[in-house]
Amino acid sequence: MKKFFLPAICVATLMAQALTSCSSDDEPVVDEPLIPAVTSGAFLLNQGNYSNKIEGSLNLLDFTTSTMTQNVFTTVNGRSLGSTPQCGVIYGSKMYIGMYESNTIEILDLRTCESLKQIRLENSTNGQQPRSMATDGGKVYISMYDGYVARLDTASMEIDASVKVGPNPEIITIYSGRIYVPNSDGMNWQNGYGTTASIVTLNPFKVESTFEVPLNPYKFFVRGSNLYLLSRGNYGDQQAAVYRIDGEESIHIADATMAVPYGNDIYLVNAPWGASVSYSRYNASTEQITPMSISNIDAPASIGIDPKSGTMLISSYTLENGKASYSLPGYVCRYDLSGNYIDRFDMGVGEAVFMFIP
Fold first, then answer.
1. What is the residue-averaged pLDDT of the chain?
2. What DSSP designation does 87 have?
3. Of 355, 357, 347, residue with least CA distance to 57
4. Partners of 349 in the beta sheet?
5. How confident is the model over 234-261, as a mean pLDDT?
6. Which of 5, 66, 137, 199 has a CA 20 to 30 Å removed from the CA of 326?
């Protein structure tokens, strides 16, 4: 964020002699920007740790200079981002961040990271506890963990509508003019996770249908002309896996706990609880899975690929006594698409959400 100040002597001169400019000794003073200008990189949104009262953070990774700027939001706005940020998107000239425990949505100026508006949701009838975001047609669609998908208008910066979907919706995507919503029913896990997904039309904004999906649906995503679903199973005998959605049929692709598409491929991480970690790449044309060798990651937390440059980021928890620590600052490693290690950066506490700079 830049601020420009005109020295008093120049003001007086301009008032007295409108056609006379200030001398070179009286050049306007320009404050240094609080955050660097980055054209190739990503914002990293760290969740923190609610139980240990560690709040979330927003960091900025510059691919060109290989530097990480920590705590961007706090530096610019002079206050905490809040508790448990779980989703964020860059859309147009703004950034939108959803805070799950704080129950707020922050709307930031993308260039300066200055907060333009904070939407408080504690009394909202349009849903609470933001979980994920998707964008289309000047709107930000937000899955709310209490069972809604809300619609935020980017011009007015107001939530203007919502629809009720299934219990505890997770990570949504927009496909063929519809929002696909995985209903995990995660808060009812003692009685078994959910097995449904909702389809919401954009115009009119309403639930069109609901269909059956594999246990504990977590994340819809699109690769090419196809729709995919990552379901997390029951963390026991039913494994997390990626499925291709064909109508209302779910076709098993590969066991995986994390997945991200890029080009013709889907990059997979399989890190089941208490078992070894594997990395692979699924080719959608040949339907072949190729193992990948990924180094320098202790306990993978999230994966993302920059759609512009193809840079792959994998965040990791730090190990403490041989186990992943959810209260110590983690790190993120950068790779090319073949999995070749480039570099590593310290980051905040908790899983990272990647928002790549367009």
1. 91
2. E
3. 347
4. 329
5. 96
6. 66
Q: Looking at beta carbons, which pairs linking 228-234 to residues 24 or more positions away fall under 8 Å?
A: 228/253, 228/259, 228/261, 228/266, 229/180, 229/182, 229/197, 230/256, 230/257, 230/258, 230/259, 231/182, 232/184, 232/193, 232/257, 234/192, 234/193
> Do strands 323-325 and 329-335 pair parallel, antiparallel, or not at all (unpaired)?
unpaired
CA terminus-to-terminus distance, the chain: 19
Backbone angles phi, psi at 77, to 5 degrees: -105, -10
Q: Which helix (H) or strand (E) holds 77?
A: helix 72-77
How far is it, in rounded angstroms, from Cα 61 to Cα 25? Answer: 37
CA-to-CA distance for 44 and 314, rounded, in angstroms? 11
- The answer to whether the CB of 167 falls within 8 A of the CB of 185 is yes
CA separation for the pair 264, 286 (Å, rounded) = 10
For 118-151, the pLDDT digits (tens) are: 999 999 999 999 999 999 999 999 999 999 999 9
- Least Cα distance to 110 among 72, 71, 64 occurs for 72
The DSSP-derived string for 289-335 is EEEE---S-SEEEEEEE-TTT--EEEEEEEEETTEEESSSEEEEEEE
Report yes or no: 101 and 82 within 8 Å, Cβ to Cβ: yes
Question: Considering only CA atoms, which of 74, 75, 67 is closest in space to residue 33?
Answer: 75
Q: Which residues 6+ apart lie within 8 Å of 269 measured at CB?
A: 256, 257, 258, 259, 277, 278, 279, 300, 303, 314
Rounded to whole angstroms, the Cα distance separating 207 from 189 reads 24
Taking residue 77's Cβ as centre, other Cβ atoms within 10 Å add up to 19
| DSSP string of 153-168, one letter each residue | ETTTTEEEEEEE-SSS
Q: What is the DSSP letter of 31?
A: P
Q: How confident is the model over 248-273, as a mean pLDDT?
A: 96
pLDDT tops 90 at residue 36? no
151, 188, 138, 191: which is closest to 168 by C-alpha?
A: 188
Contacts of 209 (CB under 8 A, 6+ apart): 198, 199
Q: Which structure tokens are listed for 215?
A: 């246990």
At 35, the pLDDT band (50, 70, 90 cuts) reads confident
